[in-house]
Amino acid sequence: MLIDINNLTFAYGHKVVLHDLSLTIKPGDFVVVSGKNGSGKSTLVKCLLGINAVSNGVIFFNHEDINYFKKWTEIGYVPQKFDDFNYEFPITVSEILSVSKLHKTPEALKLKLLDDMGILENMNDSINSLSGGQIQRVFVVRAMLNHPRLLILDEPTASIDRKNVEYFRKTVNRLHAEGVTIILISHEQSLDELDYTHELHLDPNLEHTYKARPVQPPTEDIA
Amino acid sequence: MITLSFFTDLFTESFMQRAFLAGIMLGVLAPLIGSIVIIRRLSFIADTLGHFSLVGISLSLFLSYSLGNEIFADKPLFLGIFFSVVGGLLIEIFRRYYKSYKEISMPIVMSLGTAVSAMFFSLSKKTGSLYNYLFGSILTVTDYYIVVIAVTMVVVILLYLLFFRQIISVSFEEGNAKFLGINLNFFQLVFIIVLSVVVSILLEAAGVLLISSMMIIPVAAAMKVGWSFRSTTIISILFSELSVFLGLWGAYSFNIPSGATIVSVNILILIIIAFAKRARLAAAKKRSKQDALPDSRQSL
Ligand SMILES: Nc1ncnc2c1ncn2[C@@H]1O[C@H](COP(=O)(O)OP(=O)(O)O)[C@@H](O)[C@H]1O
Ligand SMILES: [Mg+2]
Predict the structure, then answer these.
(1) Ligand 1 pocket test: which of A42, A54, A207 has the largest number of ligand atoms within 8 Å of its C-beta?
(2) What pTM, to 2 d.p., does this model score?
(3) Distance from the CA of A43 to the center of ligand 1, in angstroms?
(4) What's the angle, vertex CA A189, arms to CA A184 and CA A192, rounded to 5?
(5) Contact B181 A102 (CB under 8 A)
(6) Which ligand is nearest to the CA of A51?
(7) Longest dimension (CA), chain B
(8) What's the pLDDT tens digit per position in B231-251?
(9) ipTM for the complex?
(10) Domain limits of chain A?
């Protein structure tokens, strides 16, 4: 998906969070958004998704103003917080995935994604019995299950332990290799193992930088 | 006294068969819609709609007894359904008007409904029948009512099966609707209309004051024992059917309004579940303590 952000300025009331941000994300790009807590990373994502109504600046998806954009089903989104979800009513992981899929996804893919995320054994557990990190992974699987053309992940590894972060990275890299456009928000240092192509750095002083990743020597052995 | 002639009448008396049939169908409908009402945190809406559908009932009485217009004379349910839907739409309008204080819509619509019903009931000089509408009288339902419930049940179950995916995903998480291509406003509108119809149908059996209990309490009890959405739904329907059956028996035996007996059984089930659950938790705790004991000795 082609994303064009033109002169985006966003404020909550009088508090300006994003100032005059312009950038283009090409189909297949893998953009990492970095920056300290409170630098506006989640705010930017919410602007892209139309959750925050943008009054200053324009955002285009595939040349279409997002205010008129219709194909939201092509986007997978994993929010940073899941406050919106009703946890108290019993529903299993498997049930959540089955009601929130768009297509007839092969069962095998669902199982593979659950396995990749290390939550295969929790498939029939009720969501309210899982830990925060497990819940987060359920929502990552949910977003991936719908074959998105654009995947937006807001600090998906924040409450995932080390071993499972590995699985997660592999999965994201695989999707990138398959041509999915990815925007991944992260305030961690260790981005090296991700095959990201661009980095957007946000700064609490409303400065920002957007640059392509410096070319690196290939990490795989060339046999 | 709890009489056993209940069972013989069940097979011989047509009024009992109608009550039984109505009860069985309502026993499925109420928790099916009730679970979504709970998940979407709309419990007060059911109450409000009940009060508003009373406008239709009282207007029917007014039309037939004061103005001599017989169309709705023995079929007050039609206007009841109509006004319940009107009430539902009014709630939606107020909810969109007071965005950050959505629940304001409830007392406004509820009091309007109650006030207008009181007027029509008095003008029609039929205040005596108010008693049945407040507390329910499933034993006196007529054939047309059975037909209306049956039609509603078929429609609701069809909608539920066809749109199960959408209903559940939007109910659990409104924000996700967009990414599934679901129009949230349209969904809400359809849900309110269906809810309005179901509420006015429950009116006859449960009474205005007990409609929401019949929808919500079986689900509230099932939530504590269910391990998945599917199991919780099935258990809530079982609880609901049990309470309808025992409630019908109680209403027949003691000549008490059916709403009162059905809801009392519902509450009883809820209490039993709560205690059973506590007892189980306590037992599990005790067991894990005993299991842990040898370990802690070893570590000493
Ligand atoms: N809904 C909101 N209303 C008001 N201020 C907000 C809201 N959401 C975030 N903020 C503020 O905007 C700034 C950026 O927040 P956020 O985008 O969540 O940062 P990040 O995701 O980079 O940690 C913070 O100062 C935060 O307090
Ligand atoms: Mg954030």
Answers:
(1) A42
(2) 0.86
(3) 6
(4) 70
(5) yes
(6) 1
(7) 90
(8) 999 999 999 999 999 999 999
(9) 0.84
(10) 28-47+72-212
